[in-house]
Amino acid sequence: MTVDAFQLYGTRLVETPPVRLRAGKLGADLANGNLRTIRYDGIELLRAVSYLVRDRDWGTYSPEIVDLRIEQSDDRFAVAYRARCEGPDDTRLVIDVRITGSADRLDFEAEAITETGFETNRCGFCILHPIVGVAGSPATVEHVDGRIVATRFPDLIEPWQPFKDMRAITHEVMPDVQAECRMEGDTFEMEDQRNWSDASYKTYVRPLALPWPYEIAANRPVRQKTSLVIRDISDSTRHPPGVSGGAIKLELGARTGTMPDIGVIITPEEADATLLAKSVLSEIAPQELLFHFDPGAGHGIDALRRFAAIATVHGGRSTLEIALPCKSSPASETSEIARQMQLAEFKPDAIMISPLVDRQSTPPGSTWPDCPPLDEVYAAVRAAFPGIRIGGGMLSYFTELNRKRVPDGQLDFVSHCTNPIVHAADDLSVMQTLEALPFITRSVRAIYGDKPYRIGPSTIPMRQNPYGSRTMDNPVGARIPMANRDPRHNGRFAEAFALGYAIRVLDADLECLTLSALSGPFGLIAGPAEPTEQGGRRPLFNTVRTLSRLAGASWQECVFSSPSEVLSFVARDAGGARLHVVNLTGEERKVDCGACRPADAGKELLLAPFATAALPLAD
């Protein structure tokens, strides 16, 4: 089946397929000059080894690659190229790269040099270990001073770096096979990238406690090397789990629960467009409207009046999400917002409050910004809004909630967001972030117990950048990290991603899940200049409407033979039981769902790229 790239990805810019490199049992994919999915005997050892250059806002440069040479034989491969980065004020950086691989070793060497001087937040290697099958497992870390420490990869998500001053890390990837990753040329440390919903542990160069941005001096080469050494004492060839007989198998699991309510976020900037699309809002019928209010951005009584009008049309519950400026006392600021709400006749059912300064991240080694004690903030909200449910947490991501754990004694619920393009924006990395979501929700539950828990808004485009001064503009619809617009939001990719997201957080027992706005760059309906398949409705509309209709229904887990490719669950309500299935890949997938007892005679389901399906089940 051939599907137009625009329908899938919202753009006709197609990713260049990787070059498959192989040396005996060792394999890797070469993409944009870096290595992905490094595997041995079919098992993923490392998710990536990349040489990255970041700007002062932690944006990632996309260097021009020239003089690319690739040599391959049965037991060896070699890659060489030069990469060029163009910085502000006519600054330039050139990186010479050499990659070699044999049956039991991989070396990635790079030398960076600039004739002009070059400002960067980070320049060097990032090594990604996968999380599935690795989290909580033993590891050995060699430090730069020669000490060797036996430890484990974190299970619950570490807010700070689990390992510092690293020279090498070794872990067992399968029985009788160990992989040692050795880093030379600087001091490395590891962060738990699951904080940002990346499906990896990241070992990176230059400790974050050092100042950034920093300057690479002119005409002074910066040399680094990463080596992967494999020690295999086994005498057999393994076959990775996954697809069996050409079809992915689904079976019913034991875990059950209740589907969460679905929210839609509305900003003052999109309030008028939302009112114009009130019939679409009624069709979706979300249980919750999440209204964003930021006095520091000029939001005031006019915005609250628009919110009141939308809430009246909606007729359901609403929450006001407040970014509190904290320029004066929390009591005076919350009282003023309450006064404006009374004048606007806006009466939300809940308040989600967070100091504005907490939207920005405080990295390791940095000084925490001035902020009133959160207990004082929450007490002020309680006094200003008596009888209303109060929520706290972060308007940004789980990262910030994990690093600044809010006191929840006065809170009725906790909340945070996620974003899948903080560090990488290629299709594979974005979809892989779904693997990290169960670790995030389990970590939240470990901190806050059974406190009511909400997630969102969580969208592919980034609404606010906690790690720099801005989100990245994306006028050509490319795949770039931290972009405020992402083309895949317009395609079936987003439809599949959102359903996969909802499935991955089912175990969290969420009170509410928000995955979109109604209009705008995060919305379910497109602007007049954005062609779509359904008369202005983005494919994501289908997933959000389906999830909204399932709110309150009971769910039962499904167990998958290849959960990185297909996810599924069973929902039961007054209309019966249905099997909901989603293909997370850009290729057709055959699914054997006979064990779930679909009502029709067919046991196998052929799913188009990024397709979703709902099958009635037999009684």
Automatic annotation (TrEMBL):
It comes from the Bacteria. It holds the Pfam family Apionate_lact_N. This is Uncharacterized protein. Residues 262-552 form the D-apionate lactonase TIM barrel domain. It comes from Rhizobium leguminosarum. InterPro entries: ApnL_C (IPR058789), ApnL_M (IPR058787), ApnL_N (IPR058788). Residues 7-231 form the D-apionate lactonase N-terminal domain. Residues 563-614 form the D-apionate lactonase C-terminal domain.
